[in-house]
Design goal:
GO terms for molecular function: ATP binding; tyrosine-tRNA ligase activity. This protein is of the alpha/beta class. It is built from 13 helices and eight strands. The strands form two sheets. Strands 1-6-5-2-3-4 form a six-stranded mixed β-sheet, with helices on one face. A two-stranded antiparallel ribbon has the order 7-8. Helix 10 packs antiparallel against helix 13 and helix 11 packs across helix 13. Bound molecules: 3-iodo-tyrosine. The site of 3-iodo-tyrosine has 13 residues, from strand 2, helix 8 and strand 5. The site of 3-iodo-tyrosine (IYR) has 13 residues, from strand 2, helix 8 and strand 5.
Length: 327
Amino acid sequence: MDTYELLTRNAAEVVTEEEVEALADDPDGKRAYVGYEPSGVLHLGHLLTANKLIDLQDAGLEVVVLLADVHAYLNGKGSFEEIRDTAEQMKEQFLAYGLDDDQTEFVLGSDYQLDDDYELDLHELELATSLNRAQRAMAEIQGGETAKVSHVVYPLMQALDIEYLDVDVAVGGMDQRKVHMLAREELPSLGYEKRPAIHTPIVGDLGTGEGKMSSSEGITISMEDSTEDLEEKVNSAFCPPTRDPEGDLVNPVLELFQYHVFPRFEEVVVERPDEYGGNLEYDDYEALAADLEAGELHPADAKGALADYLDELIAPGRQRLRELRSE
Ligand code: IYR
């Protein structure tokens, strides 16, 4: 796979293709980052962007993971102390999941976001940005409650992070795109360069295929799930083998194969007893999706394999969480 393909595979959007092509031409020493509001337990939404970070590391980029404690505080996620405690757990889970210890820098937002120069730049951005613009940038990140002043400061800080962490590309889910667009527009007015962004898709709820998997309703999969939990959740997932009236394959089981399993495993084996045709082996997602659609692969067999692979992916993080909790 060439470097551009590795940087952009499974992305929902690349801003802009030319800028990311330039990165792909000369990836050495370049830095990419994702920021996360610390939370005690990772879920598949976190792991989707982590998969992109692993792609970027494989392409030779350095990766910065921002544990955005101040952002979580501004977004009403608890006391500052509680948030700081979960940041360390989050780091440990990412390392267990497969981010390379030597190639990943973990930074706490509060390590630099409370400094004078950052604060003054933030105020300059506050002066330059309309309330309306900041609120729109924040709409998909903020939980539904009434917007507070903190919710309009948040996206401006996120824009500044790109400069202060000295990164060459920002990575995030599609829910972060308006913040990255605001950053591209506003950073130059402070004399800073605009940087490209790579956005990953938002995978739908397992039960319906709609909405965000990380949302509080619906079925989510997390680092805490036992093997049995995973089997149960995957088994109850929506998995229509055919297209909807619009011609789209709305199928969360396939999405999980595409975004979580194939990027991390060279080959996927669906085990079947000989009397049902024996094992099926796939090198890529398209072949598996085609077999499901054609009826060659039964949804129940696909689900069984999916639960096994997800279990393998989260097992090290689940183990690490147990150790941390018993300390
Ligand atoms: N807005 C993110 C968290 C976040 C991301 C980045 I990139 C930052 O620089 C700061 C915060 C979220 O929704 O989790």
